[in-house]
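Quick question, first post here. What does this chain look like in 3D?
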Amino acid sequence: MSANTQATGQQPSATYQATKAAKATENSAFLKACRREPVPHTPVWFMRQAGRSLPEYHKVREGIAMLDSCMRPDLVAEITMQPVRRHDVDAAIYFSDIVVPLKAIGIDLDIKPGVGPVIANPIRTRADLAQLRDLTPEDVWYVTEAMGLLTAELGEKPLIGFAGAPFTLASYLVEGGPSRNHEHTKALMYGDPQLWADLLDRLAEITSAFLKVQIEAGASAVQLFDSWVGALAPADYRRSVMPASAKVFQAVADYGVPRIHFGVGTGELLGLMGEAGADVVGVDWRVPLDEAARRVGPGKALQGNFDPAILFSTPEAVETKAREVLDAAAGLEGHVFNLGHGVPPNTDPDALTRLVEYVHTQTAK
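> Answer (accepted):
Ran it through. Tokens below.
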């Protein structure tokens, strides 16, 4: 796709690179569930399934900084495939980090172990917006190359692309790093609503471009992570955040791939998150899936929502809780089994393997 087509939002060409991957994966259990179609079994994948919980991940990452590992196609492909081989999950999720597109356009940032993304020059004024230039496919050439390697190896198994949502990216940029209370973020949002709107709009453009690159390279679905948006009240979300998220979902609508929207602590926002344009709404463990379905309303599949902390309990306790999740999901239009957040780094990988097998066995038709 040309830069001009990206900018205008015109419908993508039918000959884009992902056509072969799309045809290979269209009948997968994961995509059927996202489309709210009958499935042979409930599909399973885990957020952060590729990474810290796997010994093979630590072995290949040894001595390589996080951001560097995200820019090496061979390494990205290997790490993305590791949980697919080990757990037999129903989808792979591209190994990367939500700040990769920011790094790609020249933002001075680093991912510090034990801390997370740290921004050298936080965005606090209108002049600071100049840091945020447009993202081009050439900026993230390694994504296209890695996804080509992955779709070739995955075959009929879907690859999920992802990006950070505008609010969460803005929070990192404004705070200068992770934040518990988002003081600077909320101060800007309330104190200069026009600057805030311009910041989120620019991030929506960058995020849209990043997702388009992934879809055109073979992603069968995309997930927008709004990790920190649970810090907001519904009225603030609707007024100050939802327009930017909706812009992202609309920007990739013509590709026809399922769009997933996920946040943490977002029980009060579930309806609005679906309204923003997602086909699938991710649910953390705080709200039962049947209640989440009531809040989201008809016409959406749900994803979730096993509490990741229970993975540290006994196998019997894990099965009991998994059964509760499946029972709550019994009446849903579509359900993708997942955790209510990412895989904790100290998780026993065998607990995940057993959980996948349990869900597959219990839901086989």
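The mean pLDDT is 94.
Residues 193-216 form the longest helix (24 residues).
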